[in-house]
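Marked as duplicate of an earlier ticket. Keeping the data here for the record.
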Amino acid sequence: MIVKRKGIILLLIIMLLVALSGLIPYGKALTVEYENSNRLLAYMPIEDQQRFQIRYTHSVHRTLVVEIYQIDNEQIVQVELIYENFAIGMPSNAHGEETFNHKDGKYFISNMHRVFNKIDLRTGQVIANHTLIVDGVQKPFREFVEPGTWARLEVASLSFWQRLRGDEITWKKKD
């Protein structure tokens, strides 16, 4: 009887430890949350120094804009900006150590080092078609975020349970 009771207690302790281990954050992920609610909509495993892009059509001048970012520890660093028009909302030159170039009808601001803890954006409902690009693979935001939604991108370590609550953004490399 005592052996059976010890076995049950040991089993309960093991089950509790397994359940608690699901709360321990591991691995780095680029997360997409609903507004600032901490409600995880999607996530993508990501490594330090890995780059990603956000591409969209500007709502005013309706030209393509590409923002290029790199992961640096827990921060998102904008490293380049590519656009086609100087209209409202677009820079007319580089600042500090940045470089400004014009090639094939596009403007490039490179050597940027603009650091963000998070990026808030409202996904376009009609024109913008915000798209997340990683390693050349494109995923429209509308696949994991309702158009018109305020979304927050952030780098975080997620636990097993958090990963279950959000949809992993899967990447299929083109052959």
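See parent ticket for discussion. The longest helix spans residues 2-21.
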